[in-house]
Amino acid sequence: MQALTLIGPSQFTFGQVADPEPAADEVLVRVRACGICGSDIHGMDGSSGRRQPPVIMGHEAAGDVVATGSAVKNWSIGQPVTFDSTVFCGRCPACLSGQVNLCSSRQVLGVSCDDYKRDGCFAELVALPQHILHAIPPGVSHVEAAFAEPISVALHAVNRLPATPRHAVVVGTGLIGLLVVQALRRAGCPHILAIDRDPARLELARRFGAADTLQPDGADAAAWVHDRTDGGADAAFEVVGHEVTLDLAIHASRIGGAVVLVGNLSPRPPFALQAVVTGERTLHGSCASAGEYPDALAAVADGSIQVQPLLSARAPLADGEQWFARLAKGEPGLMKVVLEP
Ligand SMILES: [Zn+2]
Ligand SMILES: [Zn+2]
């Protein structure tokens, strides 16, 4: 098969590699669409330690079943499918409690780290355990279904809260942040604020349901949130993962409120301990997703979450290296790029 392989820091080769062989409980999928994720861009230069070359990256994908192992029961050839980016075991205590994202032996597609290497979906074929697959509903394209992964991440972030907040603020409106805005609106949150440095992204946030947005530029962003809420947001979503945005999310939440931590760039940022302790703010870490795929696909099918405005480009897999380079440079206006093997 043809595959785009990361062979060194930000270096790729596109060409022939061996076809994967499905095991008895695995399904072979012909990949039709695979989105480039921010974690691929941040990881491909080696800095995250989670894209150690050589590896075929790609975990936001959809395709068609082309072969099934001997023990596969519920999938048949030709069926359009998407799949969890996490390969979980289904048997450990975390899996049995439904927290498959915390599986003790989990592997993420397209990730190569100290513990494991699992090739992903920037390739024509991928072999996957049958239990991580989800059927694509009628009317949803492969490209749209490739968004099920990031949508699940956003739905999971909102699901981390015990109840839908009355006032929410989303700090960072990249792709996941914009999906969090949509997930909040879909959950019935009546008042959503959004903060980002990029005005085009804030315009999308307003289109997706944010009542008001702020481009901080030296403004006191926490005070701006307090002015528009009853002394702070019931829930602040941190979707960047840096020191400044973490601090903002904590201070933009109200006393007794919650902060959902989705961004994951800085390993040990300074932390506003006293605001959390004395304000009894609750911090929720949110990692990947745990059972949100069917809801994510339903949201695309019924239009309650829109992905077309987030799709910047579709390109052949052969052109992948140049799209990785353009995204790594931070070319303005680029949101999701989907490669089609
Ligand atoms: Zn991702
Ligand atoms: Zn498990």
How would you describe the overall organization of this protein?
The chain has 2 domains: 200 residues, Medium-chain alcohol dehydrogenases, catalytic domain (Quinone Oxidoreductase, Chain A, domain 1), CATH 3.90.180.10; 125 residues, NAD(P)-binding Rossmann-like Domain (Rossmann fold, 3-Layer(aba) Sandwich). The strands form 5 sheets. Strands 3, 4, 5, 10, 11, 18 and 19 form a 7-stranded mixed sheet that branches. The protein has a 6-stranded parallel sheet with strand order 14-13-12-15-16-17, sandwiched between helices. A two-stranded antiparallel ribbon has the order 1-2. The model has no long low-confidence stretch (mean pLDDT 97). α4 crosses α5, α4 packs across α10 and α7 runs parallel beside α8. The protein has 341 residues and is α/β, with parallel strands linked by helices. Bound molecules: zinc ion (2 copies). The site of one zinc ion has 9 residues, from α2.
Computed Rg? 20 Å
Mean pLDDT: 97
Unreliable residue runs: none
- CATH structural fold name of the largest domain: Quinone Oxidoreductase, Chain A, domain 1
Number of strands: 19
Large-scale geometry:
globular
Order of SSEs: EEEHEEEHEEEEEHHEHEHEHEHEHEHEHE
Overall number of structural domains: 2
Assess the beta-strand content as a share of residues.
25-35%
Corresponding CATH architecture of the largest domain: Alpha-Beta Complex
CATH homology superfamily name of the largest domain = Medium-chain alcohol dehydrogenases, catalytic domain
CATH class of the largest domain: Alpha Beta
Main sheet attributes: strand count, strand direction, barrel closure: 7 strands, mixed
Helix amount, in percent?
25-40%
